[in-house]
Design brief:
25 helices; flat; 41% helix; alpha/beta; Adenine-n6-DNA-methyltransferase TaqI, Chain A, domain 2
């Protein structure tokens, strides 16, 4: 009986070899890169490299997948591994078939398999054509695509097995269909990805539309449907028993057929979808739409005219009856950014606003369309409100400087939901988290103004962050005063810093040693760092985690912490540092840190050098750290080199006499004490500057006449 992985073997014959690196294996198995190196070193049955790209070993992809399936190692499940193997096969097929034709053929085969649930590879192309014509008599879905593939004859024979493998790997026909569209760029079908938004944004638009609260049998309009991302997102949010009816259109006939196929595998019946070729929604079969969602087509910046985008939105709003809604994503320079004052585009935008149609404007960051990361977009939420119910207000939200995380999008959807359920009025019980509610007249009185929040709302003046800010500033002023007094006392009570450094006599040469020798002499002990998962590092937690960022000084100690429960369960063999441990790293550059308190966790690739106090000539941690830092500066990594000229263990450092080491240690302690006081003062001044500037920026603070003279530049 063939094993699970053996079923994937036949479709790989005579295909372009799949060569992957250690890093790609880690991504495939969903583990960190060093884990793969450990596998290759520890397990003799791990596939050997089949080639080298310079110094990088390359492995046979199918062999690695079979090894992962056989051993069960890694965090990826079987379906993911088999799906990746099949998708690689599709990437190899893209060299024989144009990307668009490849996607059309595969999605058509999946639809045919979904209809009769019969294997595809068992029949020849003529039989598949007959099966397709039987189920698609009017050639509206996949008959034409399968007939075109059949004309290539034996050249595309293996493609049937690929489709079978994808379907058998998934739980439903919709899943492999989605895999293919997710891999559209890998398959060379770039035009299918050109106007697509991120899956998170498609789901966000569906949530903003309020489709989850709509009654059965409503009509949903989706102009410029493209590959159907919005269609499937809306269908996923449909919680009704009988479903809704969908109107859609697109000027590309191949995309119209693709959307029909996608609707089939998502169990949208043929009578539930009316899609036509063109720019206008079909309104003959169904009533006027109760909801419209749209992503306006992308246009290059040099050809983009804000007026065109606004006219398209105006055309869509003409289809809305009273109480109907639309959510439209389009270019930010038309929907949110400033326009030439009293120009044609400005007049049209303000007319849409003053007519009560525009209810919310959301300014989005770049990257909403992954294929065009520099393209800035904005969202409009529109609603046809009867004259007597209009409140004359609009919600402006600015996310242009926010990462579109799930938390940010959840907050956006909640703000718009509350705004919508309050009948587009400010009831005072909820404050938008990233925007303000303004009277429409404020924007109409300033032609050309950007539809973005220009200031904080009145209610935001009463948030804890604003109210507490003057008190925090006063606390910082008191803290600075105390630090200044401490500095004066230190200066009065302690003598001025004198290192008393002088040239060493030539008859007293210094003795040198290395870390390797110190380890052999048992004066030092070397301990490795721990591989801590990034998701377990938090700003809060019980224990400090010393990563290379803390050791090199790019982040203060305490930036990364770990919870006690997580440490004891996921890293039960982890060891804490002890007071005086010297923590070093060479990645991304050399860094050394003396952990004077101890009870920290060192994260790989950093490691610990622990001084043995019972040695014959014990080392002093601060002195060792200073000498290592100086030695590393002399042998730093050259530009373009992978490693430094010498390993840390091989760098020659002075082996000071105990008396001289004690004097050096006392000097370093005094320097550290004074530096700590200066750092505290600098941190307090930085916090004072930040809080004051934040209050001035949001308009909640003002500065009275200072007690010190101003300095004009």
């Amino acid at each position: 009986m063939p094993t699970e992985h053996e079923a994937t073997t036949p479709i790989l014959q005579d295909q372009t070899p799949w060569r992957i690196t250690y890093t790609e294996i880690g991504t495939l198995a969903q583990v960190q890169r060093p884990v793969v190196t450990t596998w290759a070193r520890r397990y003799p049955d791990f596939p050997a490299p089949v080639a080298h790209d310079g110094t990088r070993p390359l492995f046979d992809g199918p062999a690695v997948v079979r090894w992962l399936l056989d051993t069960g190692r890694g965090n990826a499940d079987t379906r993911h591994l088999r799906g990746e193997l099949a998708l690689h096969t599709l990437a190899a097929w893209s060299e024989r078939l144009p990307g668009a034709a490849l996607v059309d053929t595969l999605t058509s085969l999946i639809c045919l398999r979904r209809h009769d649930d019969m294997p595809l590879a068992a029949d020849g192309w003529p039989e598949l054509v007959e099966r397709a014509r039987y189920f698609d008599e009017e050639d509206a879905f996949f008959a034409r695509e399968i007939a075109a593939a059949a004309q290539s004859g034996e050249q595309l024979d293996g493609l049937r097995a690929v489709a079978d493998e994808l379907v058998e790997t998934a739980y439903s026909p919709a899943e492999p269909f989605t895999w293919i569209l997710d891999a559209r760029r890998r398959l060379g079908a770039h035009h299918l990805a050109a106007d697509s938004v991120t899956p998170a944004m498609a789901q966000c638009i569906a949530r903003l539309s309020g489709i989850e609260e709509m009654e059965d049998g409503r009509v949903i309009g989706i102009p410029y449907v493209r590959t159907g991302d919005l269609l499937t997102a809306l269908h996923d949010k449909d919680v009704t028993d009988t479903g809704h009816l969908y109107q859609a259109c697109d000027p590309d006939p191949s995309l119209v057929r693709l959307v029909r196929r996608r609707a089939l595998v998502h169990d949208i019946a043929e009578y539930e979808l009316d899609i036509v070729e063109g720019d206008e929604l079909p309104t003959e079969a169904f009533d006027a739409p109760d909801l419209i969602t749209a992503v306006l087509p992308y246009e290059a910046g040099e050809d983009r005219d804000p007026l065109v985008a606004l006219e398209r939105i105006e055309t869509l709003t003409d289809l809305l009856a009273d109480g109907r809604m639309a959510v439209v994503l389009g270019p930010a320079d038309a929907l949110a950014q400033a326009l030439p004052s009293r120009g044609e585009a400005d007049r049209l935008r303000r007319s849409l606003l003053t007519s009560g149609l525009v209810k919310a404007v959301v300014n989005l960051p770049g990257g909403v369309m992954p294929y065009r990361p520099a393209y800035r977009t904005a969202l409009w939420v529109l609603h046809r409100t009867p004259q007597e119910q209009r409140r004359g207000r609009v919600l402006l939200i600015d996310l242009s400087a926010q990462d579109l995380t799930h938390r940010t999008l959840d907050a956006l959807c909640e703000d718009v939901y509350i705004w919508r359920t309050a009948n587009w009025d400010d009831d005072g019980r909820h404050e938008p988290r990233h925007g303000v509610i303004l009277p429409i007249q404020v924007l109409d009185d300033r032609p050309g103004i950007a539809f973005t929040p220009q200031h904080r709302s009145h209610a935001s003046r009463y948030t804890s962050a604003v109210i507490d800010r003057p008190a925090l500033i006063s606390e910082l002023e008191v803290r600075l005063s105390r630090l200044t007094d401490a500095a004066h006392r230190q200066h009065d009570q302690r003598p001025e810093l004198r290192t008393r450094a002088t040239l060493r006599p030539s008859d007293r040469p210094i003795r040198r040693t290395t870390v390797t020798r110190l380890l052999k002499e048992r004066r030092l002990r070397k301990l490795p760092g721990h591989r801590i998962d990034a998701e377990h590092l938090r700003p809060e937690g019980r224990y400090d985690v010393l990563t290379p960022a803390e050791i090199t000084g790019t982040a203060p100690v305490g930036t990364h912490r770990i919870d006690r429960t997580v440490l004891m369960t996921a890293y039960e063999h982890a060891q804490f540092t002890e007071p005086g441990d010297v923590v070093i790293t060479v990645t991304p550059r050399f860094g050394v840190y003396v952990d004077e308190e101890g009870l920290s966790v060192v994260a790989y690739p950093a490691r610990v050098l622990r001084v043995r106090p019972g040695a014959e000539r014990p080392l002093r941690p601060r002195v060792l750290a200073a000498l290592l830092r100086a030695a590393a500066a002399e042998h730093r990594r050259a530009s373009g080199a992978v490693r430094a000229a010498r390993r840390i263990e091989d760098m020659a450092i002075p082996d000071l006499d105990p008396d001289e080491a004690a004097r050096c240690d006392a000097l370093l302690v005094e320097i550290a004490r004074r530096a700590a006081l200066l750092r505290e003062q600098a941190a307090a001044l930085e916090d004072l500057s930040r809080l004051t500037a934040a209050g001035l920026t949001d308009g909640t603070l003002t500065i009275l006449a200072p007690d010190f003279p101003s300095h004009a530049l």
